Amino acid sequence: MAENEKIQELLKQIHELAAELEKSRQELKRLYNEVRILSGENINPTRLAETQKRRQESFSLENFVGLRLIHFIGIIALVIGLAIGVKYAIDRNLVSPLMRIGLAYLAAAILFFISFRLRKKYRLFSLILFGGSMATAYFTTYGAFAYYQFLTIAVTFGLMLLLAVVTVYYSIKYNSQELSVLALVGGYGIPFLVRGNAENWIGLFSYIFIINLAISFLSFKRYWTTLIYLSFAVTWIIFLSSLYLRFEKIGFAPALLFSILFFLLFMVNTTAFKFRRKEQLTWPDTLIVLINITLFYFALWRIFNFDDFEQLSVMTILFGVASLGTGLLEKFLHQSTLAKGFLLFGLLMVIISIPMRFEQLTITIIWMFMATLLFVIGLWKKTKLFRLVAIVLFAATLFKLVAIDSMKFTAIQKVISYILLGTILLTISFLYQKFKDVIFRDDEPDPNNF
Asked: Which residues contact 444 (CB under 8 A, 6 or more apart)?
């Protein structure tokens, strides 16, 4: 009897443990599904465990060569072989031009089919084959248009745009930044490959804007810095070079419109992913934001074509004030690094606007008072950034005074400048000595103080 009770008790414990295990399994499944939804990938426990195990393995030459390098070399060798074969056939007139294009498309289709069949078991190999198929299709389409005139401009543009869209789709499906870069390169190359002799600048900028809208969509899904930085560089290079070389053909209104659109788009592309997840932007992110503002500044400079620096100084001050205001606003959005970047940029724009409006002694005196004001604010608010900017501005003022002003100033101007600068520097040195405990104790300030 006692044994039966003992067995019943053990069975009860077994059932309870089984229920807890089932509950834990369901919770684990729910968490994996949540990760899959957030990342856009099909994740399962087995694959995740295998991935973690592979990451823990130490680097080996055989692993690198066997799993990665051979794939790339193989696909390159295959493309070279196809190119040599096509050239051989062309030189000996073995196949007609239409057959050459058809065989090239067939090779691309075969690569795509194989990559599709191997996508589950051999993901990386499938990924490389897919990239090779898309590259082959890109250049085959261009060859059919440029060399054989088999396709019209509209058909060629549509086909290459479709290839770019397919590549973007699979870059998300494979979670592959490399594929997205391939799509980007192909996408940007389309208008230059198929544009003909016409210069449709509005059409070109509209197309680039659409490409960047797709990148904006990707920036909400993935944090692919290579894609963001590459699109940023290529777009601004194309746009600014067009502005400075073909502004008369572009026109004022389209140039202004697209400069604003590109500026806003890249602000979104750079910040969207981390803003959405409430993460801190890093200094590289902030640097891209500031470069974007700077390029926008130079675009507006070319568009408005200011007659002199005094007119340009108005826009420079506006940029400075807007950046300072944004820096203070970002403080309340808990983006301390971005806020520091905006404050630095704003101060720089205000500082460089002074020489645009004033001359010689006036510049020196204004810079001295600006540096003094920044230092006092930095001391009062315990803001290290303002104090450092003040020191740099004092150094720039001293350099200007010694290297430039000394050759142009009268004796009275030199006396005023040197005495004023020396007095201010000694006063600041005294303040450093007096408040050194407070200043250097706060070298690691509260995050709300920059």
From this structure: none
